[in-house]
Each structure stands twice: as structure tokens, then as C-alpha cells.
Amino acid sequence: MSSLHHRHLAVSPEWLALYYRHPLEITHGEGRHVWDADGRRYLDFFGGILTTMTAHALPEVTKAVSEQAGRIIHSSTLYLNRPMVELAERVATLSGIPEARVFFTTSGTEANDTALLLATTYRRSNQILAMRNSYHGRSFSAVSITGNNAWSPTSLSPLQTLYVHGGVRTRGPYAHLGDGEFIAACVADLEDLLGHSRAPAALIAEPIQGVGGFTSPPDGLYAAFREVLNRHGILWISDEVQTGWGRSGEHFWGWQAHGQNGPPDIVTFAKGIGNGMSIGGVIARADVMNCLDANSISTFGGSPVTMAAGLANLSYLLEHDLQGNARRVGGLLIERLRAIGAASECVREVRGRGLMIGIELVKPGTDEANPEAAAAVLEAAREGGLLLGKGGGHDTSVLRIAPPLSLSIPEAEEGAAILAEALRSVG
Questions:
Q1: What interhelical angle do 304-319 and 322-342 show, nearest 10?
Q2: Backbone angle region of 364, left / alpha / beta, with phi > 0 → left and psi within -120 to 50 → alpha
Q3: What's the whole-model pTM score?
């Protein structure tokens, strides 16, 4: 055990997870690579949990942070803040929500908390619809709408939550159906559920479930849900903390794969927009955002430094068409990984879009989740010089792949080769 690991254990909660048998200290990064305290270089296919969205040590972002920090670091939302207004203007325009208002927070958890506050206040209901296998954050209210028991440390809740079918395409009672039949069955389930409950405030859903193992429904499911929700006056909250900003390649927002009946009423975001800086936020229709009748500010949300980082990062993303790069390089990577998976008895499915890819592992010859194999592949990939994530609602048996969106084709090929060897090493 390293000295730092020993010190960590002495002062940190027992439930604070660390990857690897011998935890890694990352000291610096550049592009798509990071280095550990021993000077070893790794290709980063997880980006600090999908947060380093463009690149490590991106010069445009580090320059913007440095220059803003040299002027003023903090002021709070009690004062006018030019970087915050400029980023809000750009985010509102990109959101697709008419008359959008933007409120910045420091994390995705806080963004989802805010969305829940808005929805329950607007609708005068504390009942929330959420998806099975979902994850929305670590706070008391966010945990209460998380449909993944590995990330739900308490059954106590300030909200009444009802869980809906549809977030996982290839497991559950409707997995055997075709896409159209799957959507129809999920809509029928939603209609039936609403017939037995008081009117909920909102449905909150990740277009692609992140912690749940990069699972997703067929395109159009949430559009079909929207027809039902609209009849009942129920709001739609799209949790874009992991799917936003073009990571899926095909769309800038995950909800756009389900946008046939218009944009969500509320969108939450975080992670990638700050490229490592702590930015979260909520976008909502003006009437929904303005429904609060008490004072509300944010001490650290909209910090001049984080807003400067977000502006520089968003400009880089758009100017260099990183969404297009995610589509092109991600498409190549997922094809390569599917070929690798087809040769492994422990790979049940390779799924995802763009640079958001999950590899679900099972015990050979069965459909039973294999968390031991996922942990072993994680270790073997690290030994090969590749950092991955893991997750999944079925006993954490999914390898999660989400590199910075500037990933090159040679880097994608290198990562796939290391992963292929790691899978071979565990059978």
C-alpha cells in the first residue's frame, strides 16, 4: 500500500470508492493521456467520469482560467457576471427550449436537485416518475429518484418516486420485443401507472443511462412518453449530465433522438461543459424557471473562473466539430469493439453511440452478470496502459468507455487493441 493510499484510508469515508487493487494517483495529463506518480503514461478512456470532454490540459481552457483568475476568482450571483451571462446566452440558444432560462450550479447532482425543486413547485406535486436503472446524483433528493440499488444508500426520501420501464433495451420483461413493440409496451405501462397514481410533477430520464452502463431505449421512446405526459400536464426533465454536448455523435443533446414532440421542459447538464471545472446547470422554459416565489441564489454556481472555462471549452468543441469527431471515431471504435466482443464468451453486448460505449460482461454460456470479470478487465487494461470505467445496474458488470471527444483514430485503435488483450487475459 502506498503512503498516499494509507493516508487516504485514514481520513476518508469507507464508502468512498477507489478503482484498482493498488489505487492510481494521477499527477498530470495532456490530450487524451494522463500520467501517474511513477511517471507511467495511460491512454484515458474515461475522462474523469466523462468530465474531461475535449482534452486534458487544453490550452484554450487553461488560458481562459488563468486569465480570469488573474482578474477576479469569485463574486457570487448577487452581482452581474459577464462570463456567466455570455455562457448562459450560448447554452440557452443551443438548448432548443423556447424562451429558455439558465441557472448554473456546481455539479450535476445540484442541477438535478434544482430541476426537482422547479418541477415539484410548478406542479404542486412531490411525485416523480423515474426510469429503472437510472442514476441522477448523490444528494438526498437525487438518490431518491435513482433506480439503481448500488447507488441508493437509503430508502428514505423527500419524494414519492414511481419507476417506469424503458431505459434498458436488452433486459427486462419487454427485451424480446421489436423496437416498435417495445415502445408501445412501455407507453402502455406508463398509461397504466398513471391510472393508479396521483398526478406526478415530472418524468426525469437520462437519454443514455450513464452509471447504469450506457443503456438506452429505442429512439422515439421519450417522444411517445411525451404524448402521454402532455395529456396529464406532466413535465419532462432530460438529464444530460453525461449525454450532452455532442458525446453521442449523432446529436448535440441526447433528447434529440426523442424530439419528435418537441424539446424537454427542463434540461440538466454538468460534467463535460467545464472540461474538469465544476459546472452544472439547469435550462428550463421561462414559466417553469420563474415559478419559485422565494429568494434563491448560488454562492459558487456561475463562478467567473468556471464560466470562463466553460465558454472556452464550448467554443473549442463547436469550432473543431468534436461532435462530428465523436460520430466518426466513435463509430469506428464501436465496430472494432463489437468484433473483439464477438470473439469473447464473456461479452454479452457492446452498445452505445459516439464516444459513449458500454461492454456488458457475463459468465460464459449464461446471461448472468459477471462483476468479477469487469474488475479483472479493468485491472488488465490498466496494466496495458488504458484507463476504463465500469458500471451497470446488474452488479456493476459493464465496462464504460468515454474518452475525450478529440480522440484520434490511431488512439482509438490503440485502446481497442489493449482492451482486446485485457479481455483475452480473463477468458
A1: 70
A2: beta
A3: 0.95
